[in-house]
């Protein structure tokens, strides 16, 4: 079992020849981030990734009271809130689950830790498609019997039990 210690572990870049790189995450190594620390009031922290190879590169800055860039004006009114962000996450489709299940158990642990742990990007939400989606290997639904309003024929598909539940 790989123990994740506080502090960033750098991305080991791998190029598949398509003009961008990915970070290696396998059974023995996965990059990590420094623990998140909220910036001081009036400051911000930015994480940037790019096709050129940046992977959640951290930088800090301060908000300015006036902006000298022509044609760009951003005004933040922190006294008025319009929405509440519940969190961040991704989708666990059939395709994602099939790929995760093809990994060894240590590689699965590292991959999931890189998404959900404090050493990773701290996802706290997951969207799970109901029945098949365009990322499934076959079309399926939970009840294909016409007029079954009482859902007597409702059944989860093998994909749901094996890969989502």
TrEMBL record:
<feature type="domain" description="Glycosyl hydrolase family 30 TIM-barrel">
    <location>
        <begin position="85"/>
        <end position="165"/>
    </location>
</feature>
<protein>
    <recommendedName>
        <fullName>Glucosylceramidase</fullName>
        <ecNumber>3.2.1.45</ecNumber>
    </recommendedName>
</protein>
<keyword id="KW-0746">Sphingolipid metabolism</keyword>
<keyword id="KW-0378">Hydrolase</keyword>
<dbReference type="InterPro" id="IPR033453">
    <property type="entry name" value="Glyco_hydro_30_TIM-barrel"/>
</dbReference>
<comment type="similarity">
    <text>Belongs to the glycosyl hydrolase 30 family.</text>
</comment>
<dbReference type="GO" id="GO:0004348">
    <property type="term" value="F:glucosylceramidase activity"/>
</dbReference>
<dbReference type="InterPro" id="IPR017853">
    <property type="entry name" value="GH"/>
</dbReference>
<dbReference type="GO" id="GO:0004336">
    <property type="term" value="F:galactosylceramidase activity"/>
</dbReference>
<keyword id="KW-0443">Lipid metabolism</keyword>
<dbReference type="GO" id="GO:0006680">
    <property type="term" value="P:glucosylceramide catabolic process"/>
</dbReference>
<comment type="pathway">
    <text>Steroid metabolism; cholesterol metabolism.</text>
</comment>
<dbReference type="GO" id="GO:0008203">
    <property type="term" value="P:cholesterol metabolic process"/>
</dbReference>
<keyword id="KW-0732">Signal</keyword>
<keyword id="KW-0326">Glycosidase</keyword>
<dbReference type="GO" id="GO:0005765">
    <property type="term" value="C:lysosomal membrane"/>
</dbReference>
<dbReference type="InterPro" id="IPR001139">
    <property type="entry name" value="Glyco_hydro_30"/>
</dbReference>
<dbReference type="Pfam" id="PF02055">
    <property type="entry name" value="Glyco_hydro_30"/>
</dbReference>
């Amino acid at each position: 079992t790989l123990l994740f210690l506080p502090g960033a572990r750098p991305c080991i870049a791998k190029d598949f020849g398509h003009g961008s790189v990915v970070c290696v995450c396998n059974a023995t190594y996965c990059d990590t981030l420094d623990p998140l620390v909220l910036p001081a009031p009036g400051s911000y922290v930015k994480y940037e990734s790019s096709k050129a190879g940046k992977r959640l590169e951290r930088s800090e800055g301060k908000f300015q009271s006036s902006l000298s860039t022509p044609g760009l004006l951003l005004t933040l009114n922190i006294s008025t809130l319009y929405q509440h962000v519940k969190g961040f996450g991704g989708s666990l489709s059939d395709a994602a689950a099939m790929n995760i299940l093809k990994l060894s158990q240590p590689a699965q642990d590292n991959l999931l830790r890189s998404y959900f742990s404090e050493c990773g990007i701290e996802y706290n939400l997951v969207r799970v498609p109901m029945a098949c989606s365009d990322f499934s290997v076959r079309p399926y639904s939970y009840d294909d019997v016409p007029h079954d309003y009482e859902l007597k024929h409702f059944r989860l598909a093998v994909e749901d039990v094996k890969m989502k539940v």
